[in-house]
């Protein structure tokens, strides 16, 4: 029997694109290093393919380059085929657990929040992932952008109940 | 071989690798690709301030923090060992436009003439770094995800709310880049 707190937690978290980790297996903390390894690959691609370039993002929003559309488009096609195969073949995790998917519920936040994020994306030239890669390449000023984005998330959390969803 | 690695990579190479991150995370431990939730985990870990939205067991999501730590390290490795020093080749119209705002240095991933630490004390720098970062953090959380969570993971799972979010990201970006940013850059 789940407690009220847990259920609310699950509901709140399912609104977000975060993992609903209801796994009952408990792994030692160092198992997380496999995600660090995947992150390193992601970070290398970010820089090598100039996805974290402020200039490439400006080109994208001015329709001056196909590059970013090609990256995101290809990633979605490859991702969609993978998800289809995982569902179809009922592929399990390496620990033998079932892979689960949760349908996203529509709420007005996807419109208002989406527009606001879009505004920020074009100014900073980076979405949250690239920010960490940019910082890694040694651009210290991006630390200010990241701190401010954490502040933005906090302010959202603070006023969440007053915002339309 | 080394030359292939040090040259900038084409979009299809990047797209395929990023697309493959989706099943990799799922198969490694039923993890759904997403980045912006980390900003929430950081709030939950550092300043939960009794706000219900930040009162959850963020340690359960610590894989996500390892993931972005990896992105940081990947950026560091590439910049120091796998990079090419050649300045980026950009569309001539963009080059001309940026020159009118005094942005002529195309070296690096972010324009050094906009993103230096001391620029935060100028109006333009403050709006771009502090203002821009705030919009990213506030907007992604309200939307429930960013480019990775909605545009890549959500669309891969054929979630229509993610399509709505992705379209809104693009509208916001087009409005900013074409209508608002020119004013900010000319400050």
What does it look like?
Chain A is 61% helix and 0% strand. Chain A contains seven helices and no strands. In chain A, helix 6 packs antiparallel against helix 7. Chain B has 187 residues and is an all-alpha fold. Chain B is 65% helix and 0% strand. In chain B, helix 7 runs antiparallel to helix 8. Chain B starts with a helix and ends with a helix. The chains are: A mainly alpha (165), B mainly alpha (187). Chains A and B meet through helix 1, helix 2, helix 3, helix 4 and helix 5 of A and helix 2, helix 3, helix 4, helix 5 and helix 6 of B.
Topology, pairings included?
The complex is a heterodimer of chains A (165) and B (187).
Chain A: H1 4-14, H2 33-48, H3 54-61, H4 67-88, H5 109-124, H6 128-136, H7 142-159
Chain B: H1 2-6, H2 11-29, H3 37-46, H4 62-82, H5 92-100, H6 123-143, H7 147-156, H8 160-185
Short description:
By secondary structure, chain A is mostly helical.
Task: Please supply descriptive tags for the structure shown above.
A: 165 residues; mainly alpha; 61% helix; disordered N terminus; B: 187 residues; globular
The major beta sheet of chain B can be summarized as: none
- Going by helix content, strand content and strand pairing, the class of chain B is mainly alpha
**How many β-strand runs of chain B?**
0
Helical stretch count of chain B? 8
By secondary-structure content and strand pairing, the structural class of chain A works out as: mainly alpha
Count of alpha and pi helical runs of chain A: 7
Backbone shape of chain A: globular
Which range does the strand content of chain A fall in?
under 5%
What general outline of chain B do the C-alpha atoms trace? globular
Stretches of chain A where pLDDT falls below 50 for ≥5 residues? 1-11
Mean pLDDT of chain B: 94
Could you tell me which chain pair has the largest interface and how many residues each side has?
A: A-B, 130 and 136 residues
Number of strands of chain A: 0
Give the averaged pLDDT of chain A, no decimals. 89
Radius of gyration of chain A: 19 Å
- Provide the β-strand percentage band of chain B: under 5%
SSE pattern of chain A: HHHHHHH
- The N- and C-terminal alpha carbons of chain B lie at a distance of 45 Å
Helix content of chain A: 55-70%
- Following the backbone from N to C, one meets helices and strands of chain B in this order, namely HHHHHHHH
Tell me the quaternary state: heterodimer
């Amino acid at each position: 029997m789940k407690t009220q707190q847990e259920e609310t937690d699950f509901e709140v978290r399912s609104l977000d694109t975060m993992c609903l980790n209801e796994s009952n297996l408990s792994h030692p903390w160092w198992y997380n290093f496999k995600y660090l390894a995947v992150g390193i690959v992601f970070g290398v691609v970010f820089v090598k393919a100039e996805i974290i370039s402020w200039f490439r993002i400006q080109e994208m929003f001015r329709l001056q380059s196909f590059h970013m559309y090609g990256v995101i488009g290809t990633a979605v096609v490859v991702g969609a085929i993978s998800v289809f195969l995982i569902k179809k073949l009922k592929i399990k995790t390496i620990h033998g657990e079932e892979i689960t998917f949760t349908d996203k519920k529509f709420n007005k936040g996807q419109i208002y929040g989406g527009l606001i994020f879009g505004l920020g994306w074009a100014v900073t030239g980076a979405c949250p992932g690239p920010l960490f890669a940019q910082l890694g390449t040694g651009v210290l000023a991006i630390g200010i952008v990241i701190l401010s984005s954490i502040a933005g998330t906090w302010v959202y959390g603070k006023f969440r109940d007053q915002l339309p969803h | 071989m080394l030359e292939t690695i040090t040259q900038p990579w084409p979009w299809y190479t990047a797209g395929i690798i990023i697309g493959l991150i989706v099943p990799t995370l799922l198969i490694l431990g039923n993890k759904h690709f997403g980045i912006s939730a980390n900003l929430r985990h950081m709030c939950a870990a550092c300043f939960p301030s009794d706000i219900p939205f930040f009162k959850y067991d963020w340690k359960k999501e610590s894989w996500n923090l390892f993931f972005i730590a990896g992105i940081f390290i990947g950026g560091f490795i590439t910049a120091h060992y796998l990079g090419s020093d050649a300045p980026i080749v950009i569309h001539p119209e963009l080059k001309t436009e940026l020159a009118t705002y005094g942005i002529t240095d195309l070296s690096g991933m972010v324009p050094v003439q906009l993103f230096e630490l001391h620029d935060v004390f100028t109006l333009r720098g403050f709006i771009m770094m502090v203002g821009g970062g705030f919009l990213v953090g506030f907007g992604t959380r309200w939307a429930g995800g960013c480019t990775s969570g909605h545009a890549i993971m959500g669309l891969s799972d054929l979630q229509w709310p993610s399509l709505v979010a992705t379209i809104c990201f693009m509208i916001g970006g087009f409005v900013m880049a074409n209508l608002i940013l020119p004013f900010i850059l000319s400050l």
